[in-house]
Amino acid sequence: YQRRVHGTLSECLFFFETRTQMPPSVQTANAILTSLQKVDPTITSWKTTTHIEQGSAEGFVIEAYQSESSDAKHLFVKYVDPKKYSDKAWADLRRTIHYTRTEVRFYTEILPLLKENVFDGWDVCPQIYLAEYNLEGLMEENESTEAQNPSASSSSTELDPKYDENDVSALEGRYGIIVMANAEKANPCFQRAPLRQPMAVAAIQAIAKFHATAFQKEHILTKVADRLCRYGGSYHLKNRNPKEMLHLISAWEGFVKEITPVAPNGFFDTPKMQDLGKRLHRAAEYIAQVLSPSPSDKFATIVHGDYKAMNIFFKGSEEDPSPTPILIDFASTGVGLGVSDVAMHIAHVALPADLENGLEDLLVKEYYNSLQEALPVDLKNAYTEVDVVRHYQFAVVDYFRFILGRQWNKATVEVFEKRSIDPNFAMVNRSVAAALRFADRADRYLTMIEDEMDSLETLASS
Question: Which residues contact 437 (CB under 8 A, 6 or more apart)?
């Protein structure tokens, strides 16, 4: 149930409805109270109407009040308590900590620079009232988001001497918190997943505009690389737990075994499809290299890094959405190629039937056209359509590598059915038909990449 809460920090009692049916810790409740009063010292009471728990953060939809008779201030609080995730291996906990640091820095340091290059009044994201973190002792301020790659003899304490997985006291009092306007109340707007064509087009138009704000702007991208993620994207190989690569081959072998009974006859029969896991393993580093521009590189820009449907709030209607939706969750934002966002987005939002009817080609073409339209005159045609398509194909295979190593390890038909009702999962994790379509695209695009790799090897040896 819900109850409005009054009192000082020490008197706080906190009740709310939660999607997960799990109450917040005292530390979380106290942090929310403290943060709300930083936003507005006159706030005297509040209630949480929705509590959302995910793998790396908690979200709270909050109504805050200045008095018993005042109108509610509609807010959304994103809170990360590292101690709550202390059961994770250090490589994964470290990434969770980096997520909150990156997002806070995006709102406070990078967003103002991007908005200087927005000329149509687009808000980009909800209004941010507060964004801060305290991660003292867990990582250095200048520490890279790149995953640490331990040797066989390395322990987590050797990788980070300030953290011991058997003693989580170092996590006490550490946090990241963001207080923003409730997008659904402020605009108003809505979320959907999956997306039909009009909303998918609007989402592509928006991300192209976002990319244009930093495209070939080395001074911005240098700061993005330094303060956010040198390798943008939640699924970039450099940011992932190295263990995911170790079971890439076995994950594909298990997928083939489990899904063959429900796949079209002969789908897995070709030698290339049988060896898709091995081929991915061989090509992964080369693909990551192509998708990892430096801030001064020709096609470099800022990438959102987690561009799924549930990180977009649409305005207008489902049939006629505005091309300026509100974007959220910049926890993986960094330097990259814009098509990495496009590849992830299409895998997340597209229904198999729409892909059969040409949605993929339509959205890639829309991205190219929208980017050209958003770029300043001196940069138009700096990124050719041929380059966009080539990089997109690399990004599709790269995202497939992540899905296979992270999400399809030990996947079964029953796992897909269980995920089918969760809009936070990509369509390729919710639908066997979408997964098979994804594997087919990865196979075709990887074949072209392999031809390119073989040509380079021949040239190098000649």
Answer: 352, 355, 356, 428
